[in-house]
Amino acid sequence: MKQSLRGFLAATLMALLVAGCATQSPSVVDRAPDRDPGQLLRQAEEQVPEQAAMTRLEAADILARQGEREDAFETAGNIDEQALPESDRVRWALLFSELARALDDPHSVLRATQVLDDELPMPSRAQRTLEDRQRWARETLDKPDPERFALPELEGETINRIAVALPESGALSNLAEALASAMRRHHDIQGDDVQLSFLDATQYSLDELYDRVQQMNAQVMIGPLSKEQVTQLEQRDSVPVPTLALNYGSSERNQAKRLFQYGLSAEDEARQAARRAWQDGHRRMALMVPDNDWGQRVGEAFWNQWQRQGGDITNAVRYNPGNPVSDAVKTALNVRGERARLDDIDALFLLALPEYARQVPPTMDYYYAQDLPVYATSHLHDGARQIRLDQDLNDVMFMDIPWQIPDAAVGGEEVLPFYASYQRLREESDASMFRLMAMGVDAYEIATRLSDFSQLQGFDGSTGKLFLTSDGRIYRELPWAKFQNGVPSPILIPGLLGDTQGNQADNDERNGD
Fold first, then answer.
1. Which residue of 7, 73, 289, 469 pairs with 351 in a disulfide if CB–CB is 3.0 to 4.6 A?
2. Is the CB of residue 107 less than 8 Å from the CB of residue 275?
3. Of 224 and 64, which is predicted with more confidence?
4. How far, in whole angstroms, is CA 83 from its chain's centroid?
5. What is the CA radius of gyration of the chain?
6. Domain limits of the chain?
7. Dihedral angle over CA of 97, 98, 102, 107, nearest 10
8. What is the pLDDT of residue 236?
9. Helices (H), 163-310
10. How far apart are the first and last CA of the chain?
11. Residues with Cβ < 8 Å from 361, sequence gap 6 or more?
12. Beta strands 459-461 and 464-468: pairing type?
């Protein structure tokens, strides 16, 4: 529940006092007038990073005290907190987390409370305040609303009657066939008593589909696959049968009771890449995405997450995949003559398919940008081992599902989730469809667990570590790998994997929207 403005302002002022302001607040009678926050923000544009961060913090403080909390939140969010002195980082964290809490933004609360991991000196009261807000954010993101997602008809029941509604014709039929095939094969390998019934979703309207599912006495429906149909469902108050849709709707939130959504979201991967790059200490990113609807959606997801964290996008390129790669790289990296100008670029985010992606690092090398870190989504990795071709991707960091990068994800194939199904499907399926096969396996497993939500919190699936978020959408936390000698390998760079900071980054990633 959102706090009242009066309570918000009182808490903000208390937070600032707890943080140890250098001077005592003047009385109401002799209080000096606030400076103009707009003027302060303009002034910050001309200052060096350290001074600019302090100036923006002052502007955010003034805006908060004036009751302009949305503007204060945006201003505080644009501060590079790493540039602040330790005491002012704590001050910023208290202010920003309070603003984010008042605006029901748990992701920003988590960003603010990362100062707890740095063990900065602070009063015990300030530490308790930040710990309480961090706990609220994690609980908000991790736990579905029990009232919204209550399934009394399934409580204490074993789910063994599942209807699968997928299109058998049309543009999505090939994808649907891969999903359905994986469910059937996994079901046979598991040898359980679940009854799977398949319906051709193209033959019915949504209401007719639910009528059929209810006539079949199914406990859960898997489907639909169409983004348009999922969007229609999430705008309803409720759906007649507990439903696991195999896509995400385009609404800002899923408001339908009993509706759960799961898919291989490229936008989620972009947001995870933004969180990873930020955790590694980068603040200024260049961006390369294809000039199409897919590139726009994924690019916007990265951009929004990056700016929410307080980072800057210094160059954003929407490239034509048919044009020379050098055209995009030269623009993204400020190439002048034969050399990239990287004074205001810390790293590059790349969205590309394998053929295009393999040309990017050699082009960067040519322009003397071989040491610039590159973060990418799973789309540059087709899953087939092509060592000679993938040598050109050496040092590129990317995420993928465990079934695609077993060595980096879990230390080898034998310890993968659902190893028997992995073996069979790897042998039988086309490499281009293997991620969908893994998704089909996880969809089956999620559906059988809907009677006990606790099983979905940190569930180790074929497509990642799965979490049920507060609006019924399944979030996937993906493992990271880096190409070395043309092979996806574990990342051993400090701050990514294998140390305390990296583990904290992994914990934070699962709270993505």
1. 289
2. no
3. 224
4. 25
5. 25
6. 5-142, 148-264+410-474, 267-400+479-509
7. 0
8. 94
9. 173-190, 206-215, 227-234, 266-279, 293-309
10. 19
11. 370, 374, 392, 393, 394, 395, 396
12. antiparallel
Which CATH number applies to 267-400+479-509? 3.40.50.2300
Contact predicate 102/2, CB 8 Å = yes
Q: Strands, DSSP E only, in 346-420?
A: 347-350, 374-376, 397-399
Is 267-400+479-509 the same fold as 148-264+410-474?
Answer: yes
Distance set, CA 167 to CA 202, 230, 231 (Å): 5, 14, 17
Residue 203: is its pLDDT beyond 60?
yes
Which class for 3: exposed (0-12), middle (13-18), buried (19 or more C-beta within 10 A)? middle
Element spanning 505, H or E = helix 500-509
Global pTM value: 0.71
**pLDDT grade, residue 336 (50/70/90)?**
very high
90 CB contacts (<8 Å, ≥6 apart)? 19, 20, 115, 120, 122, 126
State yes or no: pLDDT of 510 exceeds 90: no
Q: What is the pLDDT of residue 146?
A: 60
Task: For the chain, count helices (H), then strands (E).
Answer: 20, 15
Q: What is the pLDDT of residue 123?
A: 87
Question: What are the phi and psi torsion angles at 223 (to 5°)?
Answer: 120, 170
Instruction: Name the one residue in this structure whose structure tokens are 């507990």.
Output: 242
247 vs 444: CA distance, rounded Å: 14
CATH topology for 148-264+410-474 is Rossmann fold (3.40.50)
Cα separation of 294 and 317, whole Å? Answer: 14
- Structure tokens given for 328: 């995009």
**Class of residue 24 by CB neighbours under 10 A (exposed 0-12, middle 13-18, buried 19+):** exposed
Residue 2 has pLDDT above 60, yes or no: no
User: Which helix (H) or strand (E) is 437 found in, with range?
Assistant: helix 434-447
